[in-house]
TrEMBL record:
The keyword S-adenosyl-L-methionine does not apply. Its EC number is 1.1.1.1. Its cofactor is Zn(2+). Residues 35-164 form the Alcohol dehydrogenase-like N-terminal domain. Signal peptide: none annotated. Belongs to the zinc-containing alcohol dehydrogenase family. It is found in: Cytoplasm. PANTHER family: ALCOHOL DEHYDROGENASE, ALCOHOL DEHYDROGENASE 2. Keywords: Cytoplasm, Metal-binding, NAD, Oxidoreductase, Zinc. This is alcohol dehydrogenase. It comes from Mikania micrantha. It catalyses: a primary alcohol + NAD(+) = an aldehyde + NADH + H(+); a secondary alcohol + NAD(+) = a ketone + NADH + H(+). One of its GO terms (cellular component) is cytosol.
Length: 380
């Protein structure tokens, strides 16, 4: 039993006081975990685009002051009432969406869209009592997607924690808690390319490169990367991407370019940009008769997907996925094992590292589009 169990912990957290303003490292109070909650000591966290979107709060509901962060690795400090599958000392990855194991979605083999713990970006409080566990001088600081990992300690619902192999290095596998699993699962769980097949990946950011990594693991022989930024192509080779298409280099639609390159279309495509035109291209570039397109990127709320129904009648399949169809508690531990077994390469996604005191540098790097993942070390 830890000496801090049942006590409020004072620790450092990076607080976003206002939209778009640099985070401020503050001393915060973190209340003990309540029913079905777990208090976690975060050791490493990384920055994902979603943190930046909600920090900028353009087109989103502004919820401030808030502690952002959702890709991370840590160790359980203490558990609240009713928590039986985790105990102090367990190594965990927080996940922005959860698995209660009791709702219809959790009971379905086909879904990971838990009714109770599905991502809710507007909620800044814990679901148990609709209050925050974070405060500064009595003033509550809001949570973010149930994780708030930009804090030395955080409180998370047990359903949003994947218990992983304690031998897995947390400074590496922390990136599996969001973006990398999203892309990897889109390919391995949803697109399911066969060995020797062709796969097109739209968007070569972290999620798209993880989708390419999934295609490499599946044994695809051609992986075609599509991106408007030619600078990404060199880096993408490390992820098994064999050919590149920059839509800006052609006058005709990219789906026609890909159809010509592949004798009628790719076997699979994975769309990771969220741009509606790319989504339509990703669907129309798959081969008739067997092609499968998987949408991962989140579009603008007013976007409309327009294609001829004949494209479907000609036996093309269009699918969408959320968090790579992984159930956080049931499946993420095995993704960590894929890394431990050297099937999945994680190191190549990690391009930068900064101490927690310099967390704003990670934001600068992402805003400049530099690198893939920046690890933030909490003890430095
Ligand atoms: Zn993320
Ligand atoms: Zn559920």
């Amino acid at each position: 039993m830890s000496s801090t169990q049942g006590q409020t912990i004072r620790c450092k957290a990076a607080v976003a006081w206002e939209a778009g303003k640099p985070l401020v490292i503050e001393e915060v109070e973190v209340a003990p975990p309540q029913k079905m909650e777990v208090r976690v000591k975060i050791l490493f966290t990384s920055l994902c685009h979603t943190d930046v979107y909600f920090w900028e709060a353009k087109g989103q509901n502004p919820v401030f002051p808030r502690i952002l962060g959702h890709e991370a690795g840590g160790v359980v400090e203490s558990v609240g009432e009713g928590v039986t599958d985790l105990q102090p000392g367990d190594h965990v990855l927080p996940v922005f969406t959860g698995e209660c194991k009791e709702c219809d979605h959790c009971k379905s083999e086909e879904s990971n869209m838990c009714d109770l713990l599905r991502i809710n970006t507007d909620r800044g409080v814990m679901i148990h009592d609709q209050t925050s566990r974070f405060s500064i001088n009595g003033k509550p600081i809001f949570h973010f997607v149930g994780t708030s990992t930009f804090s030395e300690y955080t409180v998370i619902h047990v359903g949003c924690l994947a218990k992983i192999n304690p031998l897995a290095p947390l400074d590496k596998v922390c990136v599996l808690s969001c973006g990398i699993s999203t892309g990897l699962g889109a390919t391995l769980n949803v697109a399911k390319p066969k060995k020797g097949s062709s796969v097109a990946v739209f968007g070569l950011g972290a999620v798209g490169l993880a989708a390419a990594e999934g295609a490499r693991i599946a044994g695809a022989s051609r992986i075609i990367g599509v991106d408007l930024n030619a600078n990404r192509f060199e880096l993408a080779k490390k992820f098994g991407v064999t050919e590149f298409v920059n839509p800006k280099d052609y006058k005709k639609p990219v789906q026609e370019v890909i159809a010509e390159m592949t004798n009628g279309g790719v076997d699979r495509s994975v769309e990771c940009t969220g741009h509606i035109d790319a989504m339509i291209s990703a669907f129309e570039c798959v081969h008739d008769g067997w092609g499968v397109a998987v949408l991962v990127g989140v579009p603008h709320k007013d976007a409309v997907f327009k294609t001829s129904p004949l494209n479907l009648l000609n036996e093309r399949t269009l699918k969408g996925t959320f968090f790579g169809n992984y159930k956080p508690r049931s499946d993420i531990p095995s993704v960590v094992e894929q890394y431990m077994n050297k099937e999945l390469e994680v190191e190549k996604f990690i391009t930068h590292e900064v101490p927690f005191s310099e967390i704003n540098k990670a934001f600068d790097l992402m805003l400049k589009g530099e690198g893939i993942r920046c690890i933030i070390r909490m003890d430095a």
